[in-house]
Amino acid sequence: MRELNLLAPGTLRWLDRPEPKLLRDDDAIVRPFVASRCDSEWTAASSLLRVLRFCSRARLLDPVFRDAFGAPAFAGPCAVGHECVAEVVEVGPAVAAVGVGDKVVVPFTVSCGDCDYCRRGLTAKCVTARRDSGQERPLAWYGHGSPTGPYGGMVSDFFRVPYANHMLARLPHGLEPLRVAAASDNLTDGFRCVVPHLRHRPNARVLVVGGLARSVGLYAAGIAAACGAQVDYLDSSPERLAVAEALGAHPKERPGLLRFPRPSESYEVVVDASNVPAGVPFSIRSTAPGGICEVPSYHMAAYTAVPLMHMTLTDITLHVGLSHPGAILPEVLAWVHDNDFAAEKVAPEVSDFDDAPKAYGTKRVTKPVLYRAPLTRSLPTAAKY
Known about the structure:
The chain has helices spanning about 40-45, 50-55, 65-70, 115-120, 125-130, 165, 185-200, 215-225, 240-245, 280-285, 310-315, 325-340, 355-360; strands at about 1-10, 10-15, 30-35, 80, 85-90, 105, 160, 170, 205-210, 230-235, 250-255, 265-270, 285-295, 315-320, 350, 370.
């Protein structure tokens, strides 16, 4: 079978791999028919990966980066892809939650659903999955190479899903698969940054600081607007500003990716999706007293400036952490369906699955999406979007 691999920065190619087999009674084999590129994979598939590798060798990045992603990071050949909608093609005898032919979303993090971390909702830190090779590792993910586990990538003809009763989230009836192409990671990440806070702060003012976490910020802005919040979206990209406006947010342009204006307004909820060092203090200083500042973006430097005295005197909460899709995917899918949320506006360009090496490596679009027909039951074609 084919599996998309990163061979070198900017070089992607289909490689032949053995077809996956059921290894445990609660495994499933799935066939992805929709896949999208995560924001972090844009960096890995571009020349910026060389910069990251240099910074890692020079010890300019936090040591956990080497522990989590290896040295060098994304060493080729590295199977890629960790956002998909898939069709179940085989299940083990202990799998009862889904069956052959079901359309499902697979979380990008592997989790068992039963350990202490999973029961607390921290599925990205599942201790069972992180130890399933006999040696504990920081992460258990799809599509990031061998340091994150033996799971391969989601841009492939087939792949194995362990703990399938817990891992696989069935699509609600009537929900367009292309609409939730990014639900495995980025869409869920944007959801968790705003929805829990807006439940307790209806009609809150929300600021989303856009940047290198491209689609996460756009999803967060659109979801917050759909919840009734007053949303400002700050970015230097005219393309992303236009998408944010189409999703109901008020676009505000800043001078450049690394340049921020002096904070002049306060917001109850702030999301830093900038992925640049200056974004953190700007976001914190833009948070109203008693407010919440969410940081879903990756700040990989060995040290990142945080204005703690400002936080003390404004009594704000700073939350930094991973998304845990294994805990909330069914809720996210139901919310998108029930609210008719047009998530496809973030990723409107759809390419043929066979063209993955070219489409996945493009720098021209914010978030490329791949599509092929599922094996069973006709679905709307990619042309609809």
